[in-house]
Amino acid sequence: MSETATLRSPVRPRPERGGPMARSLRWHLAALSLGLTLPGLAFTGVLLWGHAQAERARLEQEGMVAARAVAAAVDRDLASLTATLEVLALSPALASGDLAAFHQAASEVARRTGLPVVLSDPTGQQLVNTRRPFGSPLPPLAFSLEEVLASQKPVVTDLFIGAVAGEPLYALVVPVVRPGRPEIAQVLSFSIAPERLHGLLLQEPLPAGAIGTIADREGRVLARSRDQDEFVGQTAPVILDTTEGLWAGRAENVTALDGTPVRASFTRVRTTGWPVGVGIPRALIDAPIYRLLAQLLGLGALLAGLAVSLAVVFGRRILTALEDLHASAAALGHGAPVPRLATPIREINDVGAVHVQAAQELRDRADELRAALAAKDALLYEVNHRVKNSLAVVGSLMALQVRQSRDPALARILAEVRARIDVIAQVHQRLYQTGRHDRVDLGEFLSEMATNTVRALDSRGQFRLDLDCRGGVLMPIEKATPLALIVTELLTNALKYARPDGTPGRVAVLLEQDPEGAIRLTVADDGAGLPEGFDPQASQGVGMKIVTALTQQLRAHLELGSEAPGTRFTITLQPVAA
């Protein structure tokens, strides 16, 4: 078997290909993308445009049909009410001038229709109003009778504030004419609240989400399918601007009273000329396009078929080159000699050349790295040795100063500082002895450190040290050092304050690790205990400040137990990598 075939395993060997006609990978992918995208884009654009136009036309037609239906409903309602008033105008009581009897007849009509009946003279003075008992003082009408007097035909007014009701109303006015007399004797009218038109508006099937509006001839809102109470009586200039001089039509860009952009269709009520508009929010008109985008996911399946056909042509060429590149990368990963590639794709050939160069550089750097690691180990060994010796010298100087000091308080402070220095010195001593520069056996280290601390600070042998520090707990040096300093500070406080009367006592250091890997370190004594309400976070002592600061640095949990006798501090540290 040839050397080339061996290097390419498990990818089957292929003959070398290449030459001046090799094109870039970008050219191949661009050709594939264009072949897949252009037909789909063209079809999608035509489909989106045609569907959007058809859906817009359908919604506009629905809006116009709805506006005409509402206008017809208003016409029917006004015709029915007009007929009722015309029949009431033939009342014998009205003809005979018996207004009391007419009041009773009009009240019955008002009860049946739900609309107050008003009788007034041609000057507009109310004579009967079913809202008030007969004989009550009545004000003049709140609207003009000029149109009905001139035409002598039924008239529907625009919106006004009722003189008796005190609320927005519109009136259906019917003249009362006596046989053989050309002049109008009285005027009958229904006072109608806009809520009646609102009910008619809601009875008609408006397009989903559309806004229906009925306005009077002055552009004041009589009824609105949304927010009736908020907008009734408001003048909408857009209604006048849109419908001026037109009986029916459409408006492309209109803003409704509530600020909603709409496309409006409008017509007018035949008997009154009131404009009736149905506005469809632009968001609803554009919604079909977004719905179509979801439907185009189905089209993606068809495009996928086309993609497969084109990918067979272009993908086979790219796949062959990538297989050769894979073999080259595999050889590079295993440290074997890397062959030079000759595929139809220039970029893959360039990457293969980089593999060849990288293989040689990796071999060179591996040799350099091995030499550097050996030098680093020797350097760290020497550094730990020198740091240990330097700290030992500092510790000796501190011990000499303690022995020569005549101030007991100063001697005690120097002894505590020396103990902290000894902790760091012991770390480097252990690193130097074990030859490991990144972690220590925490149990062995704390046992040795605690023993040395008690021996250094308890010169009278007052305390007995109980140790239960299990070995095998490997701790990174950046975490072991703060833990050792915490134990030193807690032991120092115990030796200073647990037995102030000089009686013998006991201090203990316990290290354990639970099955989940959490480490629990306990320092305890059997002394007098802490003052009631003692808070380590608020303590002013230097040692306790060091303990709390290092605990926070380790992100550990410090728990204080003050059950008699003595004091117990427990530090819990979450699992760390060995």
UniProtKB/TrEMBL annotation:
SUPFAM superfamilies cross-referenced by the UniProt entry: ATPase domain of HSP90 chaperone/DNA topoisomerase II/histidine kinase (SSF55874)
Q: What are the start and end residues of every segment in region (Disordered)?
A: 1-20
List the InterPro entries. HATPase_C_sf, HATPase_dom, His_kinase_dom, Sig_transdc_His_kin-like_C, Sig_transdc_His_kin_sub2_dim/P, Sig_transdc_His_kinase_HWE
Its Gene Ontology molecular function terms?
Answer: protein histidine kinase activity
Keyword Transferase belongs to the record: yes
Name the keywords, alphabetized. Answer: ATP-binding, Kinase, Membrane, Nucleotide-binding, Phosphoprotein, Transferase, Transmembrane, Transmembrane helix
Q: Which residues form the Histidine kinase domain?
A: 382-577
Q: What's the superkingdom here?
A: Bacteria
Q: What class of enzyme is it?
A: transferase
Against PANTHER family, the record matches this protein to:
ETHYLENE RESPONSE SENSOR PROTEIN, TWO-COMPONENT SYSTEM SENSOR PROTEIN
Q: What is this protein called?
A: histidine kinase
State the species of origin.
Rubellimicrobium aerolatum
